[in-house]
Amino acid sequence: MGFSLLQPLRDVPxxxxxVETTGASADFGDRVVELGIxxxxxxxxxxxxxxxxxxxxxxxxGVTALTGISQSMVDGQPTFAAQLPxxxxxxxxxxxxxxxxxxxxxxxxxEFRRSGQDIVEALxxxxxxxxVRIARRRFGRGxxxxxxxxxxxxxxxxxxxxxxADAQTTAAVFEKLMEPVGGWEVCxxxxxxxxxxxxxxLPVTARENLLPLELEEALEQQCPVMMExxxxxxxxxxxxxxxxxxxxxxxxMLLIAHCHLRNDRRTFKLERIVRLTRVEG
Length: 281
What we know:
Blueprint: E1 14-21, E2 32-41, E3 44-52, H1 61-67, H2 71-74, H3 80-91, E4 95-98, H4 101-114, H5 119-122, E5 128-130, H6 131-139, H7 146-152, H8 163-178, H9 188-194, H10 213-221, E6 225-230, E7 236-249, E8 252-259, E9 264-269, E10 273-278
Protein backbone atom coordinates (compact mmCIF):
# COMPACT_ATOMS: atom_id res chain seq x y z
CA MET A 1 0.00 0.00 0.00
CA GLY A 2 1.07 3.61 -0.47
CA PHE A 3 1.45 6.09 2.36
CA SER A 4 0.22 9.66 2.32
CA LEU A 5 2.08 12.25 4.37
CA LEU A 6 -1.30 13.67 5.36
CA GLN A 7 -2.59 10.39 6.80
CA PRO A 8 -3.12 10.43 10.56
CA LEU A 9 -1.13 7.77 12.39
CA ARG A 10 -4.43 6.11 13.29
CA ASP A 11 -4.82 5.21 9.59
CA VAL A 12 -1.21 4.01 9.12
CA PRO A 13 -0.46 0.34 9.94
CA UNK A 14 2.63 0.30 12.15
CA UNK A 15 5.06 -2.59 12.68
CA UNK A 16 7.21 -2.16 15.78
CA UNK A 17 10.17 -4.52 15.61
CA UNK A 18 13.18 -5.57 17.59
CA VAL A 19 15.95 -8.11 17.00
CA GLU A 20 18.33 -9.89 19.33
CA THR A 21 21.61 -10.81 17.68
CA THR A 22 24.74 -12.93 18.11
CA GLY A 23 26.85 -9.80 18.58
CA ALA A 24 27.27 -6.11 17.95
CA SER A 25 27.80 -5.80 14.19
CA ALA A 26 25.96 -7.11 11.14
CA ASP A 27 28.88 -5.92 9.01
CA PHE A 28 31.16 -8.21 11.00
CA GLY A 29 29.00 -11.26 10.33
CA ASP A 30 26.75 -11.27 13.39
CA ARG A 31 23.28 -12.71 12.81
CA VAL A 32 19.72 -12.42 14.17
CA VAL A 33 18.80 -14.89 16.92
CA GLU A 34 15.33 -13.58 17.77
CA LEU A 35 12.76 -11.41 16.01
CA GLY A 36 9.84 -9.68 17.69
CA ILE A 37 7.10 -7.69 15.94
CA UNK A 38 4.06 -5.82 17.24
CA UNK A 39 1.56 -4.65 14.61
CA UNK A 40 -0.63 -1.69 15.51
CA UNK A 41 -3.63 -0.54 13.48
CA UNK A 42 -6.08 2.16 14.47
CA UNK A 43 -4.06 2.82 17.60
CA UNK A 44 -4.39 -0.72 18.97
CA UNK A 45 -2.37 -3.92 18.81
CA UNK A 46 -3.78 -6.34 16.22
CA UNK A 47 -0.99 -8.91 16.08
CA UNK A 48 2.29 -10.01 17.65
CA UNK A 49 5.10 -12.28 16.49
CA UNK A 50 8.11 -13.74 18.25
CA UNK A 51 10.52 -16.37 16.98
CA UNK A 52 13.91 -17.69 18.04
CA UNK A 53 16.13 -18.14 14.99
CA UNK A 54 19.07 -20.43 14.32
CA UNK A 55 21.87 -18.00 13.36
CA UNK A 56 24.11 -20.79 12.07
CA UNK A 57 26.96 -19.30 14.11
CA UNK A 58 28.06 -18.92 17.72
CA UNK A 59 26.29 -16.51 20.09
CA UNK A 60 28.73 -14.26 21.96
CA UNK A 61 28.98 -14.79 25.75
CA GLY A 62 27.97 -11.19 26.43
CA VAL A 63 24.71 -11.60 24.47
CA THR A 64 23.82 -14.77 26.39
CA ALA A 65 24.54 -13.03 29.70
CA LEU A 66 22.38 -10.04 28.72
CA THR A 67 19.44 -11.75 27.02
CA GLY A 68 19.45 -15.25 28.48
CA ILE A 69 19.40 -16.67 24.94
CA SER A 70 21.84 -19.59 24.86
CA GLN A 71 23.25 -21.57 21.97
CA SER A 72 21.13 -24.58 22.87
CA MET A 73 17.97 -22.45 22.66
CA VAL A 74 18.58 -21.50 19.02
CA ASP A 75 20.23 -24.62 17.61
CA GLY A 76 17.59 -26.37 15.50
CA GLN A 77 15.22 -23.39 15.42
CA PRO A 78 14.02 -22.11 12.00
CA THR A 79 16.53 -20.14 9.97
CA PHE A 80 15.68 -16.53 9.19
CA ALA A 81 14.65 -17.50 5.65
CA ALA A 82 12.37 -20.27 6.93
CA GLN A 83 10.48 -17.97 9.31
CA LEU A 84 10.34 -14.97 6.96
CA PRO A 85 6.90 -15.73 5.44
CA UNK A 86 5.35 -15.73 8.91
CA UNK A 87 7.10 -12.49 9.86
CA UNK A 88 6.00 -10.84 6.62
CA UNK A 89 2.36 -11.29 7.60
CA UNK A 90 2.91 -8.59 10.23
CA UNK A 91 5.42 -6.49 8.30
CA UNK A 92 3.67 -6.25 4.94
CA UNK A 93 1.94 -2.93 4.23
CA UNK A 94 3.13 -1.27 7.44
CA UNK A 95 5.47 1.53 8.41
CA UNK A 96 8.48 0.20 10.32
CA UNK A 97 9.33 1.49 13.78
CA UNK A 98 12.00 0.62 16.31
CA UNK A 99 14.23 1.93 19.07
CA UNK A 100 17.57 2.74 17.44
CA UNK A 101 15.91 1.11 14.46
CA UNK A 102 18.88 1.62 12.13
CA UNK A 103 20.76 -1.02 14.15
CA UNK A 104 17.90 -3.54 13.75
CA UNK A 105 17.56 -2.75 10.06
CA UNK A 106 21.28 -3.28 9.46
CA UNK A 107 20.79 -6.90 10.54
CA UNK A 108 17.47 -7.36 8.77
CA UNK A 109 18.84 -5.98 5.51
CA UNK A 110 21.56 -8.65 5.45
CA GLU A 111 19.17 -11.40 6.55
CA PHE A 112 16.75 -10.49 3.75
CA ARG A 113 19.64 -10.64 1.29
CA ARG A 114 20.68 -14.09 2.52
CA SER A 115 17.04 -15.13 2.04
CA GLY A 116 17.18 -14.00 -1.60
CA GLN A 117 15.05 -10.89 -1.09
CA ASP A 118 15.61 -7.16 -1.23
CA ILE A 119 14.27 -5.56 1.96
CA VAL A 120 13.17 -2.36 0.18
CA GLU A 121 11.16 -4.31 -2.40
CA ALA A 122 9.80 -6.82 0.12
CA LEU A 123 8.55 -4.06 2.44
CA UNK A 124 7.47 -1.82 -0.45
CA UNK A 125 9.86 0.97 0.56
CA UNK A 126 7.99 1.44 3.83
CA UNK A 127 8.50 4.64 5.85
CA UNK A 128 10.63 4.26 8.97
CA UNK A 129 10.43 5.94 12.38
CA UNK A 130 12.83 5.76 15.30
CA UNK A 131 11.89 6.42 18.93
CA VAL A 132 15.55 7.19 19.74
CA ARG A 133 15.60 10.07 17.25
CA ILE A 134 12.35 11.45 18.63
CA ALA A 135 13.65 11.15 22.21
CA ARG A 136 16.92 12.88 21.35
CA ARG A 137 15.09 15.87 19.91
CA ARG A 138 12.83 15.95 22.96
CA PHE A 139 15.30 15.25 25.78
CA GLY A 140 18.79 15.66 24.29
CA ARG A 141 21.45 13.08 23.51
CA GLY A 142 22.55 10.48 26.03
CA UNK A 143 20.51 8.34 28.39
CA UNK A 144 17.96 7.28 25.78
CA UNK A 145 18.39 3.52 26.12
CA UNK A 146 14.97 1.86 26.06
CA UNK A 147 15.14 0.70 29.68
CA UNK A 148 15.90 4.29 30.80
CA UNK A 149 13.55 6.15 28.47
CA UNK A 150 10.49 3.97 29.10
CA UNK A 151 10.18 4.67 32.87
CA UNK A 152 10.77 8.38 32.21
CA UNK A 153 7.60 8.29 30.09
CA UNK A 154 5.62 6.20 32.55
CA UNK A 155 6.12 2.88 30.72
CA UNK A 156 7.33 0.02 32.90
CA UNK A 157 8.87 -2.83 30.86
CA UNK A 158 8.16 -6.27 32.33
CA UNK A 159 11.06 -7.94 30.50
CA UNK A 160 14.16 -6.40 28.92
CA UNK A 161 16.39 -7.53 26.08
CA UNK A 162 14.02 -10.03 24.51
CA UNK A 163 12.70 -9.21 21.07
CA UNK A 164 8.93 -9.19 21.56
CA ALA A 165 9.09 -7.53 24.98
CA ASP A 166 11.30 -4.74 23.63
CA ALA A 167 9.02 -4.29 20.61
CA GLN A 168 6.04 -3.99 22.98
CA THR A 169 7.90 -1.44 25.11
CA THR A 170 8.86 0.53 21.99
CA ALA A 171 5.22 0.67 20.88
CA ALA A 172 4.19 2.03 24.28
CA VAL A 173 7.07 4.54 24.27
CA PHE A 174 6.12 5.75 20.78
CA GLU A 175 2.52 6.34 21.87
CA LYS A 176 3.75 8.38 24.86
CA LEU A 177 6.12 10.41 22.68
CA MET A 178 3.29 11.24 20.27
CA GLU A 179 0.78 12.32 22.95
CA PRO A 180 2.05 15.93 23.30
CA VAL A 181 1.82 16.54 19.53
CA GLY A 182 -1.59 15.02 18.81
CA GLY A 183 -1.33 11.32 19.55
CA TRP A 184 -2.84 9.00 16.95
CA GLU A 185 -4.39 11.96 15.14
CA VAL A 186 -1.01 13.51 14.21
CA CYS A 187 -0.32 13.14 10.50
CA UNK A 188 2.61 11.15 9.18
CA UNK A 189 4.49 14.26 8.02
CA UNK A 190 4.32 15.76 11.52
CA UNK A 191 5.48 12.48 13.03
CA UNK A 192 8.49 12.70 10.69
CA UNK A 193 9.14 16.21 11.95
CA UNK A 194 9.37 14.92 15.51
CA UNK A 195 12.35 12.75 14.53
CA UNK A 196 14.00 15.33 12.31
CA UNK A 197 12.74 14.16 8.94
CA UNK A 198 11.86 10.99 7.00
CA UNK A 199 13.92 7.81 7.12
CA UNK A 200 14.21 4.90 4.72
CA UNK A 201 14.89 1.21 5.17
CA LEU A 202 18.53 1.65 4.16
CA PRO A 203 21.07 4.10 5.63
CA VAL A 204 21.77 7.28 3.70
CA THR A 205 25.53 6.62 3.80
CA ALA A 206 27.59 3.48 4.31
CA ARG A 207 29.43 5.24 7.14
CA GLU A 208 26.35 5.58 9.33
CA ASN A 209 27.08 4.25 12.82
CA LEU A 210 25.31 0.93 13.34
CA LEU A 211 26.42 -0.03 16.83
CA PRO A 212 24.15 -0.83 19.80
CA LEU A 213 22.76 2.39 21.25
CA GLU A 214 24.51 2.22 24.63
CA LEU A 215 27.89 1.69 22.94
CA GLU A 216 27.24 4.35 20.30
CA GLU A 217 26.34 6.98 22.92
CA ALA A 218 29.27 6.02 25.15
CA LEU A 219 31.71 6.45 22.25
CA GLU A 220 30.06 9.67 21.10
CA GLN A 221 30.20 11.36 24.49
CA GLN A 222 33.44 9.76 25.73
CA CYS A 223 32.25 10.10 29.29
CA PRO A 224 32.52 7.53 32.10
CA VAL A 225 30.24 4.49 31.91
CA MET A 226 29.97 1.44 34.11
CA MET A 227 30.77 -1.66 32.07
CA GLU A 228 29.60 -5.12 33.05
CA UNK A 229 32.11 -7.51 31.52
CA UNK A 230 32.69 -11.26 31.40
CA UNK A 231 36.27 -12.16 32.26
CA UNK A 232 38.12 -15.19 30.89
CA UNK A 233 36.53 -17.37 33.59
CA UNK A 234 33.01 -16.19 32.64
CA UNK A 235 32.73 -14.18 35.88
CA UNK A 236 30.85 -10.89 35.68
CA UNK A 237 32.97 -7.91 36.66
CA UNK A 238 32.20 -4.20 36.79
CA UNK A 239 34.64 -1.55 35.63
CA UNK A 240 34.38 2.20 35.30
CA UNK A 241 35.68 3.10 31.83
CA UNK A 242 35.81 5.97 29.36
CA UNK A 243 35.27 4.50 25.84
CA UNK A 244 37.58 5.83 23.13
CA UNK A 245 36.99 3.87 19.93
CA UNK A 246 36.19 0.48 18.41
CA UNK A 247 38.58 -1.39 16.13
CA UNK A 248 38.78 -4.79 14.48
CA UNK A 249 41.73 -7.11 15.00
CA UNK A 250 42.30 -10.78 14.17
CA UNK A 251 38.63 -11.45 13.53
CA UNK A 252 37.37 -9.70 16.67
CA MET A 253 35.78 -6.34 17.49
CA LEU A 254 37.56 -4.57 20.32
CA LEU A 255 36.65 -1.60 22.49
CA ILE A 256 39.57 0.64 23.41
CA ALA A 257 38.87 2.51 26.64
CA HIS A 258 40.52 4.19 29.59
CA CYS A 259 39.98 1.89 32.57
CA HIS A 260 39.72 3.69 35.91
CA LEU A 261 40.49 0.47 37.81
CA ARG A 262 43.91 0.18 36.13
CA ASN A 263 44.26 3.91 35.38
CA ASP A 264 45.40 2.91 31.93
CA ARG A 265 44.19 2.40 28.38
CA ARG A 266 42.84 -1.15 28.02
CA THR A 267 41.32 -3.33 25.31
CA PHE A 268 38.03 -5.20 25.81
CA LYS A 269 36.36 -7.73 23.54
CA LEU A 270 32.92 -6.52 22.44
CA GLU A 271 31.57 -10.06 22.59
CA ARG A 272 32.25 -10.11 26.35
CA ILE A 273 30.54 -6.81 27.18
CA VAL A 274 27.19 -7.50 28.86
CA ARG A 275 26.01 -3.91 29.27
CA LEU A 276 27.16 -0.33 29.50
CA THR A 277 25.43 2.03 31.95
CA ARG A 278 25.78 5.79 31.84
CA VAL A 279 27.26 7.26 35.02
CA GLU A 280 25.36 10.41 35.93
CA GLY A 281 27.44 13.32 37.17
